[in-house]
Automatic annotation (TrEMBL):
This is Benzoate/H(+) symporter BenE family transporter. Residues 394-420 have a biased composition (Low complexity). PANTHER family: INNER MEMBRANE PROTEIN YDCO, MFS FAMILY TRANSPORTER, PREDICTED SUBSTRATE BENZOATE. Signal peptide: none annotated. InterPro entries: Benzoate_Transporter. It comes from Dactylosporangium vinaceum. The keyword Membrane applies. Residues 386-420 are annotated as: Disordered. It comes from the Bacteria. The chain crosses the membrane at residues 39-61, 68-85, 91-111, 123-140, 171-193, 205-224, 245-275, 287-310, 317-336, 348-381. Keywords: Membrane, Transmembrane, Transmembrane helix.
Length: 420
C-alpha cells in the first residue's frame, strides 16, 4: 500500500470500530427480543459483520468509491420494539429472508424503489421515531433502577458527546464495563468463548410475522439508511449506483439471515466518516477507507461471542440504556423530519402515536399499523404524497440520491453535516 494511503486506511478502521462499538448492543438486544438464544444472537452479530465486510470491500473495489456498508440499526431497534413473535426466532429468521428478498426486488424493479420513495417523509420519520422511543427512554429508567451503574454511563456519554461526539457511545460502553466491574453482579469474562460460533437455523414463514416484521424492517432500512446514505454520498460529490447496491446488500442480507443476521444496508453516519476530505484529499483515493472498514468489520465480527458474553454479564436495563443513548440522535432527526413540515404533520403524529403504543393487533406489530394509520390519515386529509416528500434526510431537490450511473467523483463544494 502506498504510504500516503495509510492514513486513509486508518480512518476506515477507526470508522469500523466506532460503528461497531456504537450499536452492537442494539443488534444483540434486538435479536434477543425476537427470541434468539445467546448463541444465536452472537451468530447473528457475526453474520452481519461478515456481510458488511464482504459487501463493502466488493462495492468499493468494483466502483472505486467509498461505499460504506453497515447493519440496519433502525431495523435492530424495530426488533426490540416488536418483541417475541409467533413461531419464535425461526419465524423471525424467515422475516429477515423476506426483507432481504424485498431489498433485491427494489434493486431489480425501479418502480418498487419509487414506491418506497413516495411514502411521505413525515410519516417515515414518525414511524422510525415511534419504533425507537422506548429504547431512548431506557437511560432514564436505568438511572432510577440502577443509579450506581447507570450514572457513570450517562455522564461519560454526555461529556464525550459535547467534546468528541463520535466517541460518545463507545465511551459510554467503556464506562458501563467499568461500572459493572466495580458495582455490578458477580461473574467475569474469563470463561467467555473467543472462537466465533456460527449457528445455522432453519427459517419458517409466518404471515403475521412477515407483515409485522419483514415489511417494516424493509421500510425502515430503506427510509432511514439507504436514502440518507445516498444523500450523504451526494454531498461529497459521489453518485454510487443505487440498484446494484440494493441488490448486493439484499443478497448478503439473505446469506446472513439463516445465521441470525437481520439486515445490512448502505451506511449513512459511517459514510460521513469515510467519504469526506479528511479521509484523503483526492476523492479518487477514498475508496481505500471503506475497504479498510470492511476488513475491520470482518475482524470485529470474530469477537461476537465475547460481545454477547459482555451483554449477558450486564443487567438488561443497562444494555438497553447504552443502546438508547446510541439512538438519541436518530430520535431527534426522526422527530424533526416528522413535524418540521406543516403539511402532513397530523398524519405524522398519528403514525408516531400508534407506532409508539406498541400495540399488537391480529398478531401484527405496531410499526405496520402506525404506517397504515398515517397513510390513511394523509389520504383522509387529502394531502397526497408529492415529489418533495421522499423519506429520509435527503433534500427533495437532491436527485443524485436516486441516480443509477456512477460518474467520476468530484470534490464536494458543500460542507457535509457533522456525523451524528
Amino acid at each position: 500500500m502506498r504510504r500516503d494511503l495509510l492514513p486513509t486506511a486508518l480512518a476506515g478502521l477507526v470508522s469500523a470500530l466506532v460503528g461497531y462499538a456504537s450499536s452492537f448492543t442494539v443488534v444483540l438486544a434486538g435479536l434477543r427480543a425476537v427470541g434468539a438464544t445467546p448463541a444465536q444472537a452472537a451468530s447473528g452479530l457475526l453474520a452481519v459483520c461478515l456481510a458488511i465486510g464482504a459487501t463493502a470491500v466488493w462495492l468499493s473495489v468494483r466502483y472505486r468509491m467509498p461505499i460504506a456498508i453497515a447493519w440496519s440499526t433502525p431495523g435492530a431497534a424495530l426488533l426490540v420494539a416488536t418483541g417475541p413473535v409467533p413461531g419464535g426466532f425461526p419465524a423471525a429468521v424467515g422475516a429477515f429472508l423476506v426483507s432481504a428478498a424485498l431489498m433485491v426486488l427494489a434493486g431489480l424493479l425501479p418502480w418498487l424503489t419509487r414506491l418506497i420513495a413516495a411514502i411521505p417523509r413525515p410519516i417515515a420519520g414518525a414511524m422510525l421515531a415511534g419504533v425507537i422511543l422506548s429504547l431512548c427512554t431506557a437511560p432514564v429508567r436505568a438511572m432510577v433502577d440502577l443509579p450506581l451503574l447507570a450514572t457513570p454511563v450517562v455522564v461519560a456519554w454526555a461529556v464525550l458527546f459535547r467534546f468528541a461526539r463520535q466517541w460518545a457511545v463507545p465511551g459510554a460502553l467503556v464506562a458501563a464495563v467499568a461500572a459493572i466491574a466495580v458495582h455490578g453482579p458477580g461473574g467475569t469474562l474469563s470463561g467467555a468463548a473467543l472462537r466465533p460460533s456460527p449457528v445455522l437455523m432453519a427459517p419458517t414463514l409466518n404471515l403475521s410475522v412477515v407483515v409485522s416484521l419483514a415489511i417494516p424492517l424493509f421500510l425502515v432500512t430503506m427510509a432511514a439508511q439507504n436514502v440518507p446514505g445516498m444523500a450523504v454520498m451526494a454531498t461529497y460529490g459521489y453518485t454510487p449506483p443505487l440498484r446494484p447496491i440494493l441488490i448486493a446488500t439484499g443478497l448478503t442480507s439473505a446469506a446472513a439471515a439463516p445465521f441470525g443476521g437481520h439486515a445490512v444496508n448502505l451506511a449513512a453516519i459511517t459514510a460521513a466518516l469515510t467519504a469526506g476530505p479528511d479521509t484523503h484529499p483526492d476523492p479518487r483515493r477514498r475508496w481505500v477507507a471503506t475497504v479498510a472498514l470492511g476488513a475491520g468489520q470482518l475482524t470485529l465480527g470474530l469477537g461476537a461471542s465475547l460481545a454477547m458474553a459482555l451483554v449477558l454479564l450486564s443487567p438488561p436495563i443497562l444494555v438497553v440504556a447504552v443502546a438508547g443513548l446510541a439512538l438519541l440522535p436518530a430520535l431527534g432527526s426522526s422527530l424533526a423530519s416528522a413535524v418540521t413540515e406543516p403539511q402532513g404533520r397530523e398524519a405524522a403524529v398519528v403514525t408516531f402515536v400508534v407506532t409508539a403504543s406498541g400495540t399488537t393487533i391480529l398478531g401484527v406489530g405496531s410499526a405496520f399499523w402506525g404506517l397504515l394509520a398515517g397513510i390513511l390519515t394523509a389520504l383522509l386529509l387529502h394531502r397526497r404524497p408529492g415529489p418533495g416528500t421522499d423519506p429520509g434526510s435527503a433534500p427533495a431537490e437532491a436527485p443524485p440520491a436516486l441516480a443509477e450511473a456512477p460518474p467520476a467523483p468530484a470534490e464536494a463544494t458543500a460542507e457535509a453535516p457533522a456525523p451524528r
